[in-house]
Design brief:
The complex is a heterodimer of chains A (about 110) and B (about 110). Chain A is mainly β and about 110 residues long. Chain A has no helices and 11 strands. The chains are: A mainly beta (about 110), B mainly beta (about 110).
Chain lengths: ~110, ~110
Amino acid sequence: QKEVEQNSGPLSVPEGAIASLNCTYSDRGSQSFFWYRQYSGKSPELIMFIYSNGDKEDGRFTAQLNKASQYVSLLIRDSQPSDSATYLCAVNVPGGKLIFGQGTELSVKP
Amino acid sequence: ETGVTQTPRHLVMGMTNKKSLKCEQHLGHNAMYWYKQSAKKPLELMFVYNFKEQTENNSVPSRFSPECPNSSHLFLHLHTLQPEDSALYLCASSQGVSYTEAFFGQGTRLTVV
């Protein structure tokens, strides 16, 4: 089982819709969770982090964490074409390693 | 954005060459990382340094040799690479190795011919 799993996509949503990106992780001892956005040819850029169960909102972005289900998600409200990118889920596993999923490609159609 | 700077941005090298990648962070962080990103694959953690000490070597072949002279600088020395080593090499830094977010440099696009 992969340590961090994401659907590779592509996930296509119309402009203005809600995009929902999902991630599962295998190590129950993981304590911190991150979402990065990576545009083609660019390096990953941190957009959200979450440590506690529940929701965390920042502008149009909401991160959701459920440690019992080992599940973390990212919701993007009012999706814009500029949100089109690959979204990487990262988990800080015990021992201090930041492990990434393979990323979900999001395409927002005008 | 100059928090984490990598040089060179692009590198083409032959299989018998020796080259080095450089990373410098201006964020006052204590941990630095090397990741490899190949097409259609997840980011692969290669090495972790915490307070200049290597804390993780993720089964990386010896043709990749890291060096961390201080908490602000990280190098990746390359020698006798293979074409399959062609990838984007990303450096990152964080305040510590646990619980904290990592910030990435712009990467070095390496092509081995």
